[in-house]
């Protein structure tokens, strides 16, 4: 039965990174109390929470005490042990998203199987389980180039490599073979896009406007949500994600990344949490992805997701902070700076983002802040 969580009740957030911080900010604005759980004393979200708990993600006792004191619990990190979340929800019945979205997305092969079973297209894929001879046949099955990815634990291009020739194959593959690997046909896509869906406990479903995404070194560089986006693409992505979330009765937020090539759409991956490509929604949409995720787990009606104007988000990595500081005095009234309060500005690690609610200044900004891309 759907429970409605009201202001002044307590929302627990497992994971204290920037996503947890922005979730907590949205919850605070809605009048909730927030508690955040993370292993690091320096977790950015702690500064936004009413209380925090330091504990490991696989520490059942610590997590159990945390979940027990919350009225409702959500997560911002997809690698929390899904079995553990299942046990906690059986005990306390206050994690509306449950363990399923975590379990489904924690293993790439399992994720792709679920995507296919929901009728959505993925690139041709082969599973490589062991160091038997099966890998020798990959070029015949997939053609060159193809991509090898660890089944579990990869992010921002880590745990994956592009194989361009037969000579290339053993090195690239064996470097990843600590766990099982999937090999995937390389999609020579026109562009990458993503869509974020939110589904309430009563089945209400909304998506946010499509973002087109550009990566540099496999790390998201910018996301553009345009007022001129193709209605056909938006409609197709909306329907795909709706079908998938309804089929598996997913509650809460789920992001879907796709490759678009001509009329073809291939699903690359899913994320059961707010997504970097949805940060633009904070200023770009009436309701942000963070507020929407909070509404869904609290049993509130979902908000309006209309795009107010074309909006562009740029990620800031550690090396961009120095040029950003020089540029700050020139930022126009349409540039919104978010810095996450990370302890260190590490090279190639996300430490903030800037959102422009118009594109007048973006070229100048981009040139000033991102020309020091490489170390
Ligand atoms: P992933 O970790 O799967 O999101 O992949 C990171 C990035 O690698 C994607 O955003 C793409 O730019 C690229 N990539 C991953 N898989 C493929 C593929 N099958 N074909 C082409 N590019 C890919």
Continuous helix count: 12
Whole-number count of domains: 3
Structural class: alpha+beta
CATH topology of the largest domain: D-amino Acid Aminotransferase, Chain A, domain 1
Task: Give me the Rg, rounded.
Answer: 21 Å
Uncertain runs: none
- Average pLDDT for all residues: 94
Multimerization state: single chain
What string, H for helix and E for strand, traces the elements in order? EHEEHEHHHEHEEHEEEEEHEEHHEHEEH
Spatial gap, N to C terminus: 53 Å
Ligands, deduplicated: adenosine monophosphate
So what's the overall shape?
globular
Main sheet specs: 9 strands, antiparallel
CATH superfamily of the largest domain: ATP-grasp fold, B domain
Number of separate strands: 17
The amount of beta strand, in percent, is: 25-35%
Range of helix content: 25-40%
